[in-house]
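Let's practice the habit of predicting before peeking. Look at the sequence and jot down your guess about where helices and strands might fall. Then scroll down.
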Amino acid sequence: MVEKERIQLRGFHNTYGADGKADGFEFCVRTGYYKGLWLSQFRTGPVTVDGEVFAKDQLVWNFGTIDYTADEMYDADVYWQVNTVATVRIRKAGGLSQGYHDVGIQFGWVCNYNSEPEKEFDGSGLGNAAVMFGGGAQRRMLLVR
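Done guessing? Here is the structure:
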């Protein structure tokens, strides 16, 4: 079941390499847009965890079975359904410690009605609809493993 909040509580955990050591973390996000959108319209900014900023080029977005970088989404012909979550993966040696973490992500999209779909609107890289939809989300979450 998908939660109302953009950052989902389920799916927040460390990731592990072949050696069994934590090599990063991941969490799930939904669009918040009322009808879904094409990945080519989606724009992502950085992720912030407990004040540590991870730039958009450090993020890997997973939709089903396919991973995308922010730049790869510009040309992706994939529709992100309104009630489908994406997994955001970030490499960080040792992962995150167990306990509560403040997680934030900036994102937006380009609404290209009657205009050319640009990669940036205001220099933020978040598209021309970022301001209308809050520009992202923030949530305090519990990591237990």
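How did you do? Residues 70-73 form the longest helix (4 residues).
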